[in-house]
Write a structure and sequence with these properties.
The structure holds 2 protein chains of 2 kinds.
Chain A: H1 2-31, H2 35-66, H3 70-97, H4 104-128, H5 135-159, H6 165-193
Helix pairs in contact in A: 1-2, 1-3, 1-4, 2-3, 3-6, 4-5, 4-6, 5-6
Chain B: E1 2-13, E2 16-27, E3 31-35, H1 42-49, E4 59-67, E5 70-71, H2 77-83, E6 84-87, H3 99-109, H4 116-129, H5 133-136, H6 149-161, E7 167-171, H7 179-192, E8 197-202, H8 205-211, E9 214-219, E10 222-228, H9 229-234, H10 239-245
Parallel strand pairs in B: 3-8, 3-9, 6-7, 7-8
Antiparallel strand pairs in B: 1-2, 1-4, 4-5, 9-10
Helix pairs in contact in B: 3-4, 3-6, 4-6, 6-7
The chains are: A mainly alpha, B alpha/beta.
């Protein structure tokens, strides 16, 4: 009985993972004034909100009905947190698409950040399939890379005579998405190994 | 110092070895739960602690059980059972005796008091400790058989407490009780462990999680895992424990 609920939860979280990944993948097109992309990220954000609420409800129901323990408990609690992180990622990307940026250097740094974030998504996908070896080390290294691009972008902005606050927020949001993906990775390690680890 | 310690404890019923070399240390002033599937040896282990097993003619024990560092086999069995009280799955008050006499009986029998006034005090104290006083203080002369199942079980706890034990063994004390009575007993365990050590046998993992500080998991007479309750329930080290807790065993 509980196995079916856990499978359904995992399936919903994987769906949310896809939505969040897609929103990160396209968000810079919005920053380059693509209105269709802006509409798509808004749709994704709404879908993620609904899915996150469903996951939250299903987790609470599973806890109430089955009083899970051990791996089941770690899985359910982690699914709630992971789901919230994905939902937050879609909030951040939707906000990014509402801004505009034409500075080539910054756009290149933002592209670098997004590429690295997408690699983080792929590492997490493999972890969902059971490959958690080196997960922490890989995510840590990738998040370091995101942070490095963030610092380069911020350095560039500090040298500009006129800098939009939107660009600062964009850089900050992309850096924050890296942190959220690190937290998701830490939660997967908690599910699989019962260890509480810190990935930045 | 540990309240109870077993050293390579082995128990047979006839030729059937039901406890297979268990080494266990139960700290003082905690609630220690022993859980496991039916037939794993939980109740047998509990009965070895207070030498109740000796009353079973086909039972044979090897190894040792220590009560606060002293081997229970070097002590008088009556003294062992005075220091280790026990509550059973089915409430077993003396039905023909009054509520008062049920609590007073052991104290009188062991001559632990010298006056009626002293006895009254102990009965009141024990009934209060068992969270039953308010419900029965005006009907102490009523027969115990007139109480509800949950009240009877608390009366049995009061009867055990009146002997001022250092350890209280509880063998599935809520197995036959409704959720409200179960909750009262569990709250009682929480209060009592401040003053004595409680060892509870349960095959409800949920109850073990709710009431205990430490938990041991037994399977086929062997100790599979023991640890702090939160550790065992969140991240059991042994696959068998995980399978039992998550209901995937067998």
């Amino acid at each position: 009985m509980i196995e079916r609920r856990l499978e359904a939860l995992k399936s919903d979280v994987l769906e949310l993972h896809k939505l969040a990944k897609r929103s990160v993948e396209i968000c810079l097109k919005g920053l380059r004034s693509d209105d269709e992309i802006r509409r798509e990220t808004a749709r994704i954000e709404q879908m993620a909100d609904v899915l996150n609420t469903d996951i939250d409800f299903n987790c609470v129901t599973a806890i109430a009905l089955y009083q899970p323990v051990a791996r089941d408990l770690r899985f359910i609690i982690s699914m709630m947190k992971i789901s919230s992180s994905y939902e937050r990622i879609t909030d951040l990307t939707q906000e990014i698409t509402m801004y505009e940026c034409s500075d080539e250097f910054l756009l290149e740094k933002f592209d670098n950040m997004v590429d690295t974030l997408l690699t983080m998504f792929e590492v997490i996908e493999r972890a969902y399939e059971g490959d958690t070896e080196n997960l922490r080390r890989q995510l840590w290294a990738l998040d370091d890379l995101v942070d490095r691009y963030y610092v380069e972008a911020m350095d560039r902005m500090s040298e500009m005579s006129r800098c939009s606050v939107d660009w600062i927020i964009t850089a900050r949001h992309l850096e924050r998405i890296g942190d959220l993906l690190g937290k998701i990775g830490a939660r997967i390690i908690f599910i699989e190994e019962g260890r509480r680890v810190w990935i930045k | 110092m540990n309240a109870i310690e077993t050293i390579n404890l082995r128990i047979w019923y006839g030729n059937n070895e039901v406890i297979r070399g268990i080494n266990l240390a139960i700290p003082e002033n905690v609630c220690f739960a022993i859980m496991g599937p039916s037939g794993c040896g939980k109740s047998t282990l509990l009965r070895a602690f207070n030498r109740l097993l000796e009353l079973n003619e086909i039972a044979r024990v090897e190894g040792d059980v220590k009560l606060f560092g002293r081997s229970v086999y070097g002590m008088d069995s009556v003294e062992v059972r005075r220091q280790i009280g026990m509550v059973f799955q089915i409430p077993n008050p003396f039905p023909h005796l009054s509520i008062y006499d049920n609590v007073a009986l052991g104290v009188r029998y062991n001559r632990l008091v010298e006056s009626k006034r002293e006895l009254d005090k102990i009965v009141e104290w024990a009934l209060k400790k068992a969270a039953l006083w308010d419900e029965v203080k005006d009907r102490l002369k009523d027969r115990a058989s007139e109480l509800s199942g949950g009240q009877m079980q608390r009366l049995c706890i009061a009867r055990a407490l009146a002997m001022r034990p250092k350890v209280l063994l509880m063998d599935e004390p809520t197995a036959n009780l409704d959720p409200i009575s179960t909750r009262k007993i569990e709250e009682l365990i929480y209060e009592l462990k401040k003053e004595l050590t409680i060892v509870i046998v349960t095959h409800s993992p949920a109850q073990a999680a709710r009431v205990s500080d430490y938990v041991a998991f037994l399977y086929l007479g062997k100790l599979v895992e023991v640890g702090k309750t939160e550790d065992v329930f969140e991240n059991p080290k042994e696959k068998l424990t995980e399978e039992y807790l998550t209901g995937r065993m067998g």
